[in-house]
Amino acid sequence: GFTCIDGKKEAKSIRDEIKIQVSRMAASKNIVPGLAVILVGDKEDSASYVRNKKKACESVGIKSVDVCLPEDSSEEDVLKYVLSFNKDPSIHGILVQLPLPSHLNEANILNKIIKEKDVDGFHPENMGLLVMRGREPYFVPCTPKGCIELLHRYNVEIKGKRAVVIGRSNIVGLPVAHLLLNEDATVTIIHSKTKNPEEITREADIIIAAAGQPNMVRGSWIKPGAVVIDVGINHIEDPNAPRGHRLVGDVCYEEACKVASAITPVPGGVGPMTIAMLLSNTLSSAKKFITSNDL
Ligand code: NAD
After folding, report:
1. Annotation marks residue 97 as catalytic
2. I need a surface site. Which of 38, 117, 156, 236 has the fewest CB within 10 A?
3. Is 42 annotated as catalytic?
4. Span 226-243, mean pLDDT?
């Protein structure tokens, strides 16, 4: 039969578990995990992601501190906050909402977050550790981790399977490909210069689509019985939708659900998992903080 992978439900159960652990930590250690979010500029999408992260923190009892800086902030303005959160013992996770305005150098800023608080996992050292065999990063990026968590929770076998990742961004495609590799999948990455991508996806037991191209993956691109994780979040115009537009993924869901054995919907698939993984990374950072102080 066909399974719709319910990211909303799984994310809820992860949040419930985190909530219990946060209250135990408060009771036994008198420590509340803290997440600092830095937003630069007034991009509506980014502002709404930050609001959702804040709401999610509140729902599990994680303290969230957000800083909203004006669009024309300098690198020094942003770094001032990063450096002060680095030193603040009540903050266990720091994230800078991306993308930053184009005059700011993203790498320079992400480099300054100490890796012990890099809950987004974008620090080059964490990315490096993710890629090296036998090494473990302090944190794994949230969206990629959410994709793998969904595969685990739906008992999808990864070891020895052919996995195809569409997209090679630092945020999604590249780290998710390495996570699959670390779980012994045989991984192929498709990107904007790949020729005949549909011939490659047709070989895949697992497809992870993160290209940001609405409905790119058609039913004919999918091997019967494959599992499809759709990371894409694309706004498309739709005169029949309440606001004149709606969200679709990178996969044509109506076609894919006739061929795949399981697929994530958009919305309600990977999106909620991303936020749940951010909460999970923040909690685990607070745990490590306690352990390191206990020594
Ligand atoms: P990006 O634009 O940084 O990267 C897109 C990647 O896809 C690039 O590597 C590019 O080479 C590849 N690509 C683009 N067009 C292609 C094509 N026609 N064929 C093959 N490859 C192609 O985007 P990103 O930040 O990696 O995000 C990808 C998508 O995932 C976007 O829709 C984004 O909104 C969504 N996203 C969702 C979540 C979530 O929580 N669900 C989180 C992050 C990003």
Report:
1. yes
2. 236
3. no
4. 96
**Active-site residue identified among 117, 118, 120, 250:** 120
Same topology, domains 30-114 and 142-270? Answer is yes
Residue of 53, 122, 172, 215 best suited for mutating to test ligand 1, as the one with most atoms within 8 Å of CB? 172
**Class of domain 142-270 (CATH, top level):** alpha beta
Residue 209 CA to ligand 1 centre (angstroms): 8
Give the CATH number of domain 30-114.
3.40.50.10860
pLDDT of 295 higher than 70: no
Per-residue pLDDT, averaged over 107-111, amounts to 97
For residue 92, report the distance from its CA to the centre of ligand 1, in Å. 28
For residue range 203-230, what is the model confidence (pLDDT) as tens digits? 999 999 999 999 999 999 999 999 999 9
How far is ligand 1, taken at its centre, from the CA of residue 212, in Å? 4
The ipTM (two decimal places) reads 0.99
Phi-psi category of residue 208: left, alpha or beta, with phi > 0 → left and psi -120 to 50 → alpha: beta
Residue 287 CB partners (closer than 8 Å, separation 6+): 25
With bands split at pLDDT 50, 70 and 90, how would you rate the model's confidence at 293? Answer: confident
Q: Where are the domains of the chain?
A: 30-114, 142-270
